[in-house]
Design goal:
Chain C: Belongs to the binding-protein-dependent transport system permease family. The complex is a heterotrimer of chains A (608), B (270) and C (327). Chain B has 270 residues and is mainly alpha-helical. Chain B contains ten helices and no strands. In chain B, α6 packs antiparallel against α8. The chains are: A alpha/beta (608), B mainly alpha (270), C mainly alpha (327).
């Protein structure tokens, strides 16, 4: 018996733009349906059409039946009795989806009171109970918090609590974890599972990541260009996709490395040498902001080395200090503490002219291809800018631009376009071409594929891999995505709260992690294979990273460490009092792999 | 570029006003500085299209002369104050640190001072007539725009394409010219056109109270003050001057609003 | 919240002292009270003028720094000195401030509230006839300067009086001379207040309406309004309960700008409706070269603008929990 049945749904915006073209789905009571599609595939429009929340200029045809009752064509007043009661929704970005000026407790209580005649006090009590159910510690206190006072994962828990407040029949979750780190994503999906069991609601989980669907849903529907491409039980569909599109999507979402990891060659000269790098941001308070009230320890003494032709990945959750590290290197000037040396030259000793000359050899690709390209310049001008800035005559620059466009796999016609006329993947190729224009010896990549869709992401990763092979430059790759690490990195450095907790060869760190945090990061990545995904043992991280302005004494990871939680009091003292230093994982086997943990995982213990 | 209907209407209105002000005196049978001793306070006639004032001057020609002054003041003051705002705001935003704090404190101080008081005290006492009046007005009108320019420059400086240019080794002047200024252009265009209206009203107000344009020069402000007393019985002098003033301000406001919509369609009023 | 207000207050105090000092120095340096004495007929002897000016701390032959020191010392004791003709400024200031406040406050409150409501209402009915009318009005009104608006209203009112044959609209002065006290007197005052209040309200209304409409349009499609609807609120209540308050937050910033406009509007309104308030006094004092009076008015204006800024900050803090911890 289906609770929600959508048939032949079409959504059209005013000038004949079709977001959804004849899509359909059915969900049975208590079932989880995963809807997978790239951005622009119409999955959000589909969700909003079901909820009746599309903007006024959208035209919807077809049929949406909830428990057999038609919803399309009903008035706002009629629909408002269904929304939030029988049909609830969890939105993607919980910061903008929660009203900033009301406390989260009030917002949940309001949801209760809209649909049920209960007293204010009873609604509040229910709100606290719901917050407790979704695993918010200190629910009584947190109910009085405003959305901006909570972390991203907490906010999404609040959204879930709100959605299940009136025991709905169906919950639609639109990319509920897209704005979150992998470790937090795993927590939130778990909460969604708890919520489902508590209410018995059917869930429509919309996502771009087949991995999220694999571990969570019973059935899957794949959307592409506004149509449902195929649907079926999750095991069947993900293992034996019936259409080429699904096949491509699945292949792209679990990228396999095309080239083998080269063995580390210590004899090669170092391109980048970072030692004890420190970057603290001062926090000012008081009238005229004169009083310094402490500092955010964004980067707190880290060191690593990249040799010629090698790629080191800097991995960690958002806020761990990865991007700050990258920016400190790019500044090419004396850091607050520690030392940065490029090609053997200490940046503290550089003069302005040296610095400009050195910029030729150190280039960067940014995360967001939308904001990293000047919207008012044509692609050809964007690519020519570094060349002319370093004194190349215009005629030669033009020829070089043509070569660059071809190098990154764009059409010559793209050079005449403005960035907004390109797709995300194409824009990122322009960003890469710009960084390669001066043939740098070191390329810094700041989350180069995080803003891209699954397929574009796989293509750009492939491009980066080939370019690195062909041009032989060294890379520093900043990412939170283990998939990218596995594909590109030779060396991996794991960052947590401004410190490096583990560093070593990629196969060592990813295959046999020694630090519990690394293990948790690896575990948090969902696999697109439902059998593996549902069977493997996983270690969840609790809570959020510590406040970087006041990290806990001793080991900074202590507050979330699953291993620390299992230690005896005597063993735990070390973690509480002593800041762990980095030391080789297996003494005697060379200094390749080191970890900063008092109780590292033994070999084999961490194998999945 | 697509220009909104409002901007087009404003532009059209402005063009009409300018052609009236520039061409009107050529076809008017009387000059603005002539006095007709045969006609005091008369209604419209063939010789005096909109009648005469109390002192026998031709209302049509006189008002166009006044409108010329007002438009001139508006344009010059708007361009000067917006230019000042662009330089100060961009300098504060791009340099940051102490420069930023000092400049913005200056702006705050000027914002707190009642600008009417400053203008009324200074304008009549400085030698130099109209140009000095315009300079005083411009010096009192840049602060709000400068704050907006500063905020935008600060956010632009952090944007990735500006960072990218800096990390590519592009020099600071070139970064400002190619990556910062073009993004400020829309804000400045909008503010400049809105400032024309503010300046016209400010000059009109000062002149109305006798602190602005001095005789023998006339502006819409002085004419409104003159015509107001007898407006009940002889509406022409007041109505024509006031009408031109309102139309001029309306035109530049429409233009400014329309430009804002066109530059920033997501935020527009439409 | 109290700590937040205190912090802002400290910030503002420095600005106030600087602003007031600057206003005095400007007036003292630029204005010429001597001219007013010398223009008298018969022309008084120079020594007499000098002595008189020195006694009033208006003598331009005393160094500016000395005059400022004397003036600042007096002001710190709460004395704004004497006017050009020897009257204490304080007494005049108190009287005129009362007149101005009675004139301006009702209009300001009316204009602000009306503008906000009208703007929000127009935004919700975006694109319909009502919205178009309001938008057009809100575009036209700010283009009409106060000194034109006031005269137009007067003309309309006298037409109406003529047509009705009764003096319904009266506006000269605060009340009819010799009017009775009590309720009838109050009614008489209200009748006199009507036209100036409408003038000030209309001048404010357009500005507020335009901003509020724009801000409301921004939240119309905000994610949190959509969330509120997804929870079962109707569109209208979602906008009222979740959109309006959020849209009011940036409005508080305009409040301090608008207060400057208000001061300016008061000058013209008082001038045209014959009220002996601060604005009329300012215009007269500047013309007479009455330094102490101008400085006192400057002081009130600076404090008024800062006070409006403080009110804006407090409102901002009250409406938006995000700023309470910061700044």
């Amino acid at each position: 018996m289906s609770v929600l049945r959508v048939t032949d749904l079409t959504v059209r915006y005013a000038p004949g733009v079709r977001a959804v073209q004849g899509a359909g789905l059915t969900v049975a009571a208590g079932e989880v349906l995963g809807v997978v599609g790239e951005s622009g595939s119409g999955k959000t429009a589909l969700a909003l059409a079901v909820m009746g929340l599309l903007p006024d200029d959208a035209r919807v045809t077809g049929s949406v039946r909830l428990r057999g009752r038609e919803l399309l064509g009903r008035s706002d007043a009629e629909l408002s009795r269904v929304r939030g009661k029988d049909l609830a929704m969890v939105f993607q970005d919980p910061l903008s989806a929660l009203t900033p000026v009301h406390t989260v407790g009030d917002q949940i209580a309001e949801t209760v009171r809209i649909h049920a005649r209960v007293s204010r006090a009873a609604a509040r009590a229910r709100a606290v109970a719901l917050l407790d159910l979704v695993g918010i510690p200190g629910a009584q206190r947190r109910a009085r918090a405003y959305p901006h006072e909570l972390s991203g994962g907490m906010r999404q828990r609040v959204m879930i609590a709100m959605a299940i407040a009136n025991d709905p029949a169906v919950v639609i979750a639109d990319e509920p974890t897209a704005a979150l780190d992998a470790t937090v994503q795993a927590q939130v999906l778990d909460v969604l599972r708890v919520a489902k069991e508590a209410t018995g609601a059917a869930i429509v989980l919309i996502t771009h990541d087949p991995g999220v669907v694999a571990g969570f849903s019973d059935r899957v529907m794949v959307m592409h260009a506004g149509r449902s491409v195929e649907s079926g039980p999750v095991e069947e569909l993900l293992r034996r996709p019936g259409t080429p599109y699904t096949n491509e999507l699945l292949r792209a979402s679990s990228p396999a490395r095309e080239s083998p990891v080269p063995p580390s060659r210590p004899e090669r000269p170092a391109v980048l040498d970072v030692d004890g790098l420190v970057r603290h941001h001062a926090l000012y308070k008081g009238p005229l902001r004169l009083r310094q009230a402490g500092s955010v320890r964004a980067v707190d003494g880290i060191g690593f080395r990249i040799r010629e032709g090698e790629t080191l990945a800097l991995v960690g959750e958002s806020g761990s200090g990865k991007t700050t590290t990258l920016m400190e290197i790019l500044r090419l000037s004396r850091p607050q503490g520690g030392r940065v040396a490029l090609f053997g030259r200490d940046t503290a000793t550089l003069r302005a002219s040296d610095r400009k000359a050195l910029r030729r050899d150190v280039q960067v690709v940014f995360q967001d291809p939308f904001s990293s390209l000047n919207p008012r310049m044509r692609v050809a001008d964007i690519l020519a800018e570094p060349l002319t800035a370093h004194g190349m005559p215009t005629s030669r620059a033009r020829a070089r631009v043509e070569a660059l466009v071809e190098l990154v796999g764009l059409e010559p016609a793209h050079a005449r376009r403005y960035p907004h006329a390109l797709s995300g993947g194409q824009r990122q190729r322009v960003g890469i071409a710009r960084a390669l224009a001066l043939e740098p010896r070191l390329l810094l990549l700041d989350e180069p594929v995080a803003a891209l869709d699954v397929i574009a992401r796989a293509e750009v990763l492939g491009l980066l891999e080939r370019l690195r092979e062909r041009l032989g430059m060294a890379c520093l790759l900043v990412t939170h995505d283990i998939g990218v690490v596995r594909r590109l990195a030779d060396q991996v450095a794991v960052m947590y709260a401004g410190r490096l907790v583990e560093i070593g060869p990629a196969d060592g760190v990813c295959g046999d992690p020694a630090h519990p945090y690394t293990r948790a990061l690896l575990d948090a990545v969902p696999l697109a294979d439902p059998c593996l995904e549902q069977r493997r043992p996983r270690v969840f991280l609790r809570g959020d990273p510590p406040d970087p302005a006041s990290p806990p004494a001793g080991c900074r990871f202590r507050s979330r460490c699953p291993r620390y939680a299992m230690l005896t009091a005597a063993e735990g003292v070390l973690c509480e009092e002593d800041d762990p230093e980095s030391r080789p994982v297996r003494p005697g086997e060379g200094a390749g792999h080191s970890v900063a943990c008092h109780h590292p995982l033994a070999e084999g213990e961490s194998a999945p | 570029m697509w220009v909104s209907r409002r901007a087009a209407a404003g532009l059209l209105l402005l063009a009409l006003l300018f052609s009236l002000v520039l061409l009107g005196p050529l076809v008017s049978p009387s000059g603005w500085d002539e006095t007709d001793f045969a006609a005091f306070h008369e209604g419209p006639s063939a010789r005096h299209w909109l009648g005469t004032t109390q002192s026998g001057r031709d209302v049509f020609a006189l008002t166009l002369r006044g409108a010329r002054t007002s438009l001139l003041v508006g344009l010059f003051v708007a361009v000067a104050s917006t230019g000042l705002a662009a330089v100060i705001g961009a300098a504060a935003g791009y340099a940051g640190g102490r420069v930023d704090r000092v400049l913005m404190w200056g702006a705050d101080l000027l914002l707190v001072l009642p600008s009417f008081l400053v203008a009324a005290v200074l304008a009549p006492r400085l030698p130099g007539g109209l140009p000095v009046l315009m300079a005083v007005l411009a010096a009192l009108m840049w602060m709000v725009t400068a704050r907006a320019v500063r905020a935008m420059t600060v956010s632009l400086r952090r944007r990735e394409h500006v960072l990218a240019a800096r990390f590519l080794g592009v020099g600071a002047p070139r970064v400002v010219a190619r990556h910062v200024l073009p993004h400020l252009a829309s804000l400045l265009a909008v503010d400049a056109s809105l400032n024309v209206g503010v300046a016209i009203v400010a000059e009109g107000g000062l002149s109305y109270l006798g602190f602005g344009v001095r005789p023998p020069d006339v502006s819409l402000g002085t004419l409104i003050a003159e015509g107001q007393g007898t407006a009940a019985a002889h509406p022409w002098p007041f109505a024509f001057a006031a009408g031109l003033l309102v139309l001029a301000v309306l035109a530049v406001n429409l233009l400014g609003d329309g430009l804002r919509d066109a530059f920033d369609p997501a935020r527009g009023g439409r | 919240m109290a700590a937040f207000v205190l912090r802002r207050l400290a910030n503002h105090l420095v600005l106030a002292v600087l602003g007031v000092s600057l206003a005095y120095l400007l007036a003292a340096a630029a204005l010429d009270p001597r001219a007013a004495y010398e223009d008298r007929t018969p022309r008084p002897p120079e020594a007499v003028v000098d002595a008189r000016l020195t006694a009033l701390n208006l003598n331009d032959r005393t160094p500016l720094a000395d005059r400022y020191r004397i003036w600042a010392g007096d002001v710190l004791r709460g004395d704004f000195g004497r006017t050009w003709d020897g009257e204490p400024v304080n007494a005049e200031l108190g009287r005129r401030l009362g007149v101005s406040l009675r004139l301006v406050l009702p209009g300001a409150v009316l204009g602000c509230a009306g503008g906000l409501l009208l703007g929000a209402w127009a935004a919700v009915r975006r694109g319909r006839t009502a919205d178009r009318l309001v938008t057009f009005g809100a575009c036209l009104l700010p283009a009409v300067p106060v000194f034109v608006l006031a005269v137009l209203l007067q003309m309309l009112a006298s037409r109406a009086n003529d047509a009705l044959g009764v003096r319904v609209f009266v506006w000269v002065g605060e009340s009819t001379p010799g009017a009775p006290g009590g309720v009838a007197g109050l009614a008489d005052r209200a009748r006199h207040l009507l036209l100036p209040t409408v003038t000030i309200a209309l001048a404010q209304l357009g500005v507020y309406c335009r901003y509020q409409r724009g801000l409301m349009l921004d939240v119309l499609h905000a994610d949190f309004v959509r969330t509120a609807r997804a929870r079962g609120l109707r569109r209208r209540s979602a906008l009222l309960r979740h959109g309006l308050r959020t849209a009011l937050v940036p409005m508080t910033t305009y409040l301090s700008y608008a207060s400057g406009l208000l001061v300016l509007g008061a000058v013209f309104t008082e001038e045209i409706f014959g009220r002996h308030g601060m604005g009329e006094w300012l215009a007269g004092s500047v013309a007479r070269g009455d330094v102490n009076a101008v400085a006192a008015i400057g002081c009130v204006a600076v404090c008024g603008v800062l006070l409006a800024g403080l009110v804006a900050d407090v409102l901002h803090g009250a409406l938006d929990p995000r700023v309470r911890g910061a700044a």
